[in-house]
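User: Could you walk me through two proteins back to back? I'd like the raw sequence and the structure tokens for each, with a short line separating them so I can tell where one ends and the next begins.

Assistant: Of course. Protein one, sequence then structure:
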Amino acid sequence: MTEPPDPTPVTPALPPAAAGSSATKKPKVRRRRQGTAHFHLSSRAVDISVAEVLHWDERRCREFVIEARWGALDRIRCPH
């Protein structure tokens, strides 16, 4: 008795590289930079340190999140 040959793994055929592939790509559109991007990426945007935040109590942390997210306590749209 002869043993059947081991099956060879089937690999999918790779498509040939397109010669003009760069010509078929859409040009990358660059958006105009906002005026606030420079400020938000600067060190002046962060005026509190990690050490300062670690000393906050729970009430101060909640006030900070409310101010950062909604602007003021009376503008909260969350029922909690």
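----
Protein two, same layout:
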Amino acid sequence: MVAERPAVVAAAIRAVLRAEELIAQDLRRAVGWSTAQFPGYGLDELTQAAARQPPCVDIRPLVPTVLERWPSLQSLGLVPAGAPVPDHALDLTLLSAELTATYTPTREGQTA
């Protein structure tokens, strides 16, 4: 999809970045939109839970962690035992470009 329709992927990234900003601006209101998806939990409980796990669109620092899971996939037989780690399987070029072009950090400790 990235190679075939980069503009669509970039637009989706921008939408998710905007959602992250809106969540940071008013977490309780953002959580309120999803309470129906979590029956049995109140708005206060869900807001507290969301505060402990804020959204993070910038997943670039997680790439090494994802690639380090390769041996686990091999041990489970989900990928061939001798297959090399797919170092170039995660292409975050568009994410990087959109973050550079449009993202204004809103969470404490983040930098542009």
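The mean pLDDT is 88.

Let me know if you want the two compared in more detail.
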